[in-house]
Amino acid sequence: MTNEELLKSTVEYYSEDPVNRRCGVRHEDGHFSCKYRPTSNRTAGCAIGRHLSYEAQTTFDSYGGIDRVLWNVDTDDERTAENNKAMMPEWMQVMSIDFLIEIQNLHDDSPNWNDKGLTELGKRAVRDIAALHCDLREAGMNWVEWLKKATS
């Protein structure tokens, strides 16, 4: 899978049913905490988690946020960020940490979504991710047309 394919897949999957497919826990203060493992039978997991094995989902859930998984921020565990990344599918391992964090943040951040799909803020986030991490020349016209439609 390429950066372009992961971005498109993420947007399409969560746009179909954002209320139920965004897995996690809504706290009393309105804050949304993502879970890598599915929290119901209506979702395959979070943006990164839905592509992971059950073992990786469980391990990553024990760390919390994607920054803790890939950078070991605030953890004293002896597992390194390299070992965590090695638990991801091979195609994901070659993607930049920054890109993976932005994909996860797109999914996690409640202001990016409403019950119909992406909000204007979410559309802007998708355009920003595409500008920074996607090769529009290599992606082809179909992908570029999809991007225009998804973010307009």
Q: Your description of this structure?
A:
- The protein is mainly alpha-helical and 152 residues long.
- It has one domain.
- Helix content is 55%, strand content 7%.
- It is built from ten helices and four strands; from the N terminus they run ααββαααααββααα.
- The protein has a two-stranded antiparallel sheet with strand order 1-2. A two-stranded antiparallel sheet has the order 3-4.
- α1 runs antiparallel to α8 and α7 packs antiparallel against α8.
- The protein is globular.
- It starts with a helix and ends with a helix.
- The model has no long low-confidence stretch (mean pLDDT 80).
Structural class: mainly alpha
Treating each run of at least 4 consecutive H or I residues as one helix, how many helices? 10
Number of strands: 4
Q: N-to-C SSE series?
A: HHEEHHHHHEEHHH
- Which parts are unreliable, with pLDDT below 50 for 5 consecutive residues or more? none
Sheet having the most strands: 2 strands, antiparallel
Q: Average pLDDT value?
A: 80
- The portion of residues assigned to helices is 55-70%
The coarse silhouette is globular
Q: Tell me the radius of gyration.
A: 15 Å
Query: How much beta, percentage-wise?
Result: 5-15%
Strand order of the largest sheet: 1-2
What is the distance, rounded to the nearest whole angstrom, between the alpha carbons of the first and last residues?
Answer: 25 Å
Number of domains: 1
